[in-house]
Amino acid sequence: MRVHPTPPFNALAARRLREALGMAPGHVAYGMRAQYGLLVSPDTVMAWERGLAAPEARELTALAGVLWCSPGDLMAAASTLREHRLARGLAIEDMARRVGLDAGAYRRMEDTGRWRGNERQSAALADLLQLPLRDYVTATGQNEDLAELLRGAVTTRWQAYVKPTAKLLPLSRQHLEGVLDQLHTEYQSHMVATLNWGAANDTGDAGRDFLDRIVERFWELAHG
Predict the structure, then answer these.
(1) Which residues contact residue 61 at a Cβ distance below 8 angstroms, ignoring those fewer than 6 apart?
(2) What is the dihedral of CA 78, 82, 86, 219, to 10 degrees?
(3) Roughly what angle, to the nearest 10 degrees, separates helices 203-212 and 214-223?
(4) 34/6: higher pLDDT
(5) Would you say 117 and 102 are in contact if contact means Cβ atoms under 8 Å apart?
(6) Span 93-133, pLDDT tens digits
(7) Distance (Å, rounded) from C-alpha 137 to C-alpha 17?
(8) pLDDT at 203 > cutoff 50
(9) What span, in angstroms and rounded, lies between the C-alpha atoms of 187 and 43?
(10) Which residues of 85-106 are buried (b: 16+ CB within 10 A; e: fewer)?
């Protein structure tokens, strides 16, 4: 099981929000103790604001409550599924229910950093997170899975890769089929053109170069 890092904390935002409310670090510490039962000292609050330390998940949620903001307002750019959930102030049980999963199953996915939901659950997750498609793939830990599927789609029959790719991505089947078809055509045309240059050219290197760039090309076509 993966050890969770401290949520990416935005120290400057925390200080600005506190000052905008006319609160001192002591007021924040008192609020966290009185409202959430967390024993946090004013010195700890100041350390957070100076970037010398960062609140843990429970502390982040409590701090957001005291500062009248969402946890996401106190976080730097989220990247993992767990960080996006924390940014929205959702408990694991709430997140699991909204995407149609058992809480234990969802927790395991979050712990491992790998999303394993089906097509319907993936669509629900994408709707809930409201992330750009590329950020969604990163958050669900599926970048390598996508690259492997794309490499298979362009080097063999792309039609066989529509279903597994659709499970990863909240894209319409029609759009996904068009993108995979285009990628396959481009790769095959690239290989034929390279062969026509003659035996002096290293077609193996050319093919690998195309495959190395295939994910970037996929995003270009998907957003086009």
Answers:
(1) 36, 71, 86, 89
(2) 40
(3) 50
(4) 34
(5) no
(6) 999 999 999 999 999 999 888 888 888 888 899 888 888 88
(7) 31
(8) no
(9) 59
(10) bbbbebeeeebbeebebeeeeb
Distance from C-alpha of 64 to C-alpha of 67, rounded to nearest angstrom: 5
Please count the residues of the chain: 224
Q: Hey, is 56 helix, strand or coil?
A: coil
Please tell me the distance from the alpha carbon of residue 131 to that of residue 121, in angstroms, as a whole number.
Answer: 15
Residues 6+ apart with CB under 8 A from 169: 122, 133, 136, 137, 146, 176, 222
CA distance 177 to 95: 30
Closest CA to 155 of 224, 195, 214: 214
From residue 210, give the alpha-carbon distance in Å to each of 126, 148, 193. Answer: 29, 13, 13
pLDDT in tens, 23-54: 999 999 999 999 999 999 999 999 999 988 99
Whose tokens are 């609050």? That residue is 45
- Cβ pair 138, 78 in contact under 8 A: no
* Both tokens assigned to 222: 């998907």
